[in-house]
Amino acid sequence: MLPNCACSRFDVAQVAFASLAGKEADDLIKELKDTLERIRPDYPVLQSAPLPEPPGAPARLFYNGIIRTMRDDLPLVEALVIRGTDILGVGTLQAMRDLAPGAREIDLAGRTLMPGFVDPHMHVVASALLAPGLGLGPVAGEAYTFDSVKAKLRQAIQSAPSVNDWIVATGFDSSRLSDGWQNITVDVLDDLFGTKDPDQQNPVYIASGSGHTTYASRRVLKMAGVPEYDPPQPDGGKIATFFEDEKDTGRTSGIFIEYPAQKYVLAALSANHQGFPEDAKTLGLNLAEILYTAVASGNTMVNEAALGIALGSAALEKAAIETVSIFTARPRFASAQYVNQYQLGQTGAHKVQWDQPNLSDPMFLQQAIKLFADGSNQGVTGLQREPYTPWARIQTERDYLGVDVKGNQNLPVSALSTLVGIANGLGWQVITHANGDAAIDNILAAYQASNEQHPDNGALRNRVEHCSILHDEQIDLMVRLGVVPSFLIQHVAEWGYVLKKLLGDRAKLLDRCASVEKAGLRFSLHSDYTVSPLEPLRRVQTAVTRIMDLDPDHGVLSADERISVVSALKAQTIDAAWQCHADQYVGTLQAGKLADLVILDSDPCTCEPTHIGDIKVSETWVNGAQVFCAAPHGEVSAA
Ligand SMILES: [Zn+2]
Ligand SMILES: [Zn+2]
């Protein structure tokens, strides 16, 4: 499953998980811990947590490889010494032997050692919750056609035990169907069911890959009280209707755009569907798999970019992650707390549990608040200054979006400004999802207003997430405001060819790494997992080559936005750590920082650029402990 932006897909999990989330937090955590203890013997991933080192254990000295510090003052060194959780020093082999006599020496045998990778924007708990849904996204090696999607749905309908069983699916991506854009409308679902009678249909709830769009069957519309004609149109979202000859027929197509519209069908799901996934075992195992996959991919820190969105409470999600971490190798965390911003629009009140940022625990930073300014460019809901192309209009008009579509404005500038002002005033960094150029305009205006209230805002490092379609003057404004971008660089590899069709020449403004670097902005590269894999070197390859992997012609998108390998590595080590307020702890190899390391089979800086993504992670160390080892090497052997 390769959905295209995960930021807002997770409210489905939040309400669908009501059977767990409804419990007291303490009960849930106890159930999770008891369950994992019980099943631990059967699952190797639950035995992967590193053993604590005995006190007084000797230092470790790494040598005989390429050691890249990611520092400008001393980029390459001969040796590194760590002791306990800390880096003791870097320098010549002799100097390090003098620094730590009696250290256990680890022969790198020519491998490359670097600071561990930092993924500055991904989703852990929500991804774990959605994992059990029926996957309707593209699968490597399989043709992705509308017929293939319908076949999976038909199969699910036929194998449902009764007409009352919910069918919940994720990952559907109209933009990448090889046989042209199609939507899963009520008419399509009627055909699959062979009836238009809502009571003879299963409740079907399908989240798009971006989560910015939901598709529902007539049964769900009936449960939700959405009429067949002239559905309500909430602020900040759209319940789509069919068009004929450019005229709105008013007939509901079953497509719900953005949370204010999606909440109609979410409410039905929440009220009528319990236990998705079925229990604490599923949640715990899925979480464990994600944490382990993160470290096995070389990540030593991840930023959970919407903490609380899945279980309805940031504290509960943090406790769930920490409980699973008793059993499983894990990266350290930064976090951006999800704020239910839509309640602001509905009630005018801030129904938000504000809390203070807390940077004191380097295993779990609470440094940011998360907001959303728009939808998804490939879903034609990213908010643009100018309408999408005529091609986009032809694809989306009939069922869906109507004419002259510019995307979806989730919140107006006034509401964004209010939320940013409150958060910054309390000392929180704000990170805001903004894909289209107009959404970036909106959030920059909100950041500007906040800067006027809070002159010290530069220190907060406010961010624009994805920051996909970016103009020169916006880069200039970001420099003036002290606001920095984090790019979902696999948009280039996997959706670049789609965005050329949807946005025309504007697609050239996608993920402008070289331009922001030239302007002096510290940028980062993220996975937005599950949107793209937890593989930092894959992102290095895309940032360095800008090759559109899924383009039938394998073209290069905006060659002048290519960056060097070292820049792409910094964007996922020191600069990503800086964007997460973690640079005092990690991001470079430097005495006094924590010992987060990755050891690679070969050096990305001398590798053929088109093969960087294939470099294997050999070992990963977090906080001075080995948490992943691909094969026995040197002094340290596989756990
Ligand atoms: Zn997002
Ligand atoms: Zn996201």
From TrEMBL:
Residues 104-628 form the Amidohydrolase domain. This is Amidohydrolase 3 domain-containing protein. It comes from Nitrospirillum viridazoti CBAmc. InterPro entries: Amidohydro_3, Metal-dep_hydrolase_composite, Metal_Hydrolase, YtcJ-like. Gene3D superfamilies: 3.10.310.70, Metal-dependent hydrolases, Urease, subunit C, domain 1. Pfam families: Amidohydro_3. GO terms for molecular function: hydrolase activity, acting on carbon-nitrogen (but not peptide) bonds. Coiled coil: none annotated.
